[in-house]
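A protein record pairs a chain with a discrete description of its three-dimensional fold. The following entry can be read in just this way:
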Amino acid sequence: MSAGLGYFPSEAEPNHIFPNQIVDNAPRSLRGFDCSAFGTRQHLENLHPYNGRDGGIRNGVISFAQRVRDGRGKPWREWTARAGSCAVDEAERLLRQDNRADLYVSQAAFGKWRSISDLTAIGACYADLDYHGVSRWRGKLPADVAGAVLGHLEEAMLPHPSYILSTGRGLVCVWLTELLPRAALPRWNAVQKRLGAVLEPFGADKRAQDAARVFRLVGSHNSRADHDRRTVGMVWCHGSPEAPTRNVFGTLADEVLPVTHADLISLRAERAKRKAEGKDKAGPAKFLSAGTYWETVLTDLQRLRAYRCPEGALPEGQRDTWLFVAASAIAWISPPEVLGREILALGHEAAGWRDSETKSRMSAVIKRARQAAAGQTVTFQGRDVDSRYRMKANTIVEWLSIDPTEQRAAGLRVLVDEDRKRELNTERTKASRIRRGGKDRAEQQAARLEMGQKALYLRASAGMTVAELAVHLGVSVGQVHKAMRLAEVQ
């Protein structure tokens, strides 16, 4: 465990002076902290921090929602605000209105609308604890349950959250991290699943583990809660209420997941050692994991759609195949509990389909994903494999008729032909060499030519041998030979 995460003893007692706080054996600086300092602005600024760009401007939007009773069969109203100060201003505006009941905010930022397929950044892991549904904790004070949660995490040797919110009838535990791209979702999902499994005794909601989740806004009211608990607010934090501790996601994942990133590096180092000793004849890994492969496929599909249809929706004739592949990709990176919602959102965004139409057309994808979640398999080439649909990249390229021009112009990384794949490999190799301190090929060629010209001049004017030239120039004899041959043909 990392000392920087600040673990506290599990024996926690409620603070009878400030009933919304916990006083435990934590350092003196954390005793009696004022939870009210974590207001709506602090909630938004910590959950959706500014980045390092000029003015702190971030791409994407934050989703807000409110449960309403308008008598028209629409119990849910949702809208967006641009990430950054606009979202903070919107949150504060909502808390100034008369109706503060049942207000929600997304935990991640999105391109245009709330869906995993349109995720731009997420800066937290979380667990939604519906403890009112667990007989052992039903009716307990939020602070008491929060203290028990902290003790349970300690026993499981997992880090404490950055803060815990009381939502009226439950708790939300939040582990703040740096902003992560959608490419991090496979590992992020694994962390979410593990946290939910550990906190299951407190009613952890498995349906609330996806990256497109909304939770109640601090300062809002839960209309279903008892009057004295209806206001959503902080009950515990690590750090200060104004700025709770933010974790490095890699470190958090290493502490939460059974197999850590360091373990993987150790295994790779051991394999490299065996290979050097001639004991491992296997070649290097050539394939992405299922999660990272399908996340990259989904990114390529979104880039292709943006290139072909800048206005948004796909034209007739391109919708079914694109949506089928995209839905299949989402099935590999989205929790099965929210897969249907994600596919419906994508059908509306990319094709303009009604929910009923999307359900009808994508029912096979959803069915296969549910079968996989239930542990069912299908037989493929004599083996039992995951029942979710899978397609090779060249098959998708053929189905969607992605030509080489589009592959380059749209910046595709996986959905490419063999020629483009070789180009990308060359680009990656070049970038890797430069990162390690190597020179660009053109620079290397120019330096070799210059050395060859100098060597030819010294041999002609001073009669120096190749061996003497090598000592004089500080290079090997072979390098001198190559440089002179290059200079001679120029």
